[in-house]
TrEMBL record:
Name of the protein this chain belongs to: GTP cyclohydrolase 1
Coiled-coil regions listed: none
GO biological process terms, semicolon-separated: folic acid biosynthetic process; tetrahydrobiopterin biosynthetic process; tetrahydrofolate biosynthetic process
Cellular component aspect of the GO annotation: cytoplasm
Keywords linked to the UniProt accession: Allosteric enzyme, Folate biosynthesis, GTP-binding, Hydrolase, Nucleotide-binding
Length: 295
């Protein structure tokens, strides 16, 4: 049972209307302010109806079903906004320093990271001076900077004026976007696929940008739950569409290589905003189209 709406911290609504989003200084306005208190729920109770699956051939088993009045909060902005302009969700102060580093500063960062990896090898009982490991600290340092290159990117550069006015108001889905990320709890990879859908509100985004947005957030230390919501909220922030839906399916090496060691376990997360959160039928349409080959 979700917490009472009256106890939810407030956030700002999405502000529609800018014709040239990338040129606006208000790109992040809706995620900086926290002034809205939600008191409604998006899924209203449905009229009492007979179950379609029970009692079709046995009238004596027919039961009445009804959608609960409160099935989920009207807003996903619980506790605090998941997208923060100066926090880890967006380039933080530390990552801005990394992005804007001089060549000398970048070299010093790489050397420090390489030294840390050398220490790690020594701590696990290895000899970092043996032939096979001689260059491993520097190789891994470069690899780690690549694995986390999303910290050096932001939405303005990713979108790059690829928002277009278009009179289209039907579902758009980009399926099977490959995602590679690093679990922030154990610093091991999790990989999978992301499916993104949205219903435009007179604005569409270049299709390749959806994959680039997913890549930007994935190339950071992440949780799958956070990653799914960040992508959905970023697309909502850019387009102010009627709704956004994101589903991600992935396998986590922290479950496969350690701990419970279940090699076939997968994790599915979703984030539904706007009409996808309000309408059961719209949400079901997206799920059917996005996951139709997985069933």
């Amino acid at each position: 049972m979700p917490p009472a709406a009256s106890n939810l911290p407030s956030t700002s609504p999405i502000i529609p209307g800018s014709q040239h989003l990338i040129e606006s200084d208000n790109l992040f306005a809706s995620i900086k302010s926290q002034s809205r208190m939600s008191t409604q729920h998006d899924i209203a109770p449905l009229p009492l109806e007979k179950s379609r699956n029970v009692g079709e051939n046995r009238p004596d088993l027919t039961v009445d079903v009804i959608t609960p009045e409160v099935s989920r909060p009207s807003t996903p902005y619980i506790l605090k906004p998941m997208v923060d302009f100066d926090g880890l969700s967006w380039p933080s102060l530390g990552t801005k320093k990394r992005l804007e580093a001089t060549p000398d500063e970048a070299a010093a960062r790489l050397n420090n990271l390489s030294g840390a990896i050398r220490t790690l090898l020594e701590c696990i009982g290895e000899d970092p001076n043996r032939e096979g490991l001689l260059d491993t600290p520097m190789r891994y340092a470069k690899a780690m900077l690549y694995f986390t290159k999303g910290y050096e990117e932001n939405l303005k550069n990713i979108v790059n004026n690829a928002v277009f006015q278009e009179d289209h108001d039907e579902l758009v889905i980009v399926r099977d976007i490959e995602v590679f990320s690093m679990c922030e709890h154990h610093l091991v990879p999790f990989t999978g696929k992301m499916h993104i859908g949205y219903i435009p509100n007179n604005k569409v985004l270049g299709l390749s940008k959806f994959a680039r947005i997913a890549e930007m957030f994935a190339r950071r230390l992440q949780l799958q739950e956070r990653l799914t919501k960040q992508v959905a909220m970023a697309i909502e922030e850019i387009l102010q569409p009627q709704g956004v839906a994101v589903v991600m399916e992935s396998a986590h090496l922290c479950m496969i290589m350690r701990g419970v060691e279940k090699t076939t376990a997968t994790t599915t997360t979703s984030s539904m905003l706007g009409v996808f959160r309000k309408s059961t039928r719209t949400r079901e349409e997206f799920m059917h189209l996005a996951l139709r080959n997985n069933r």
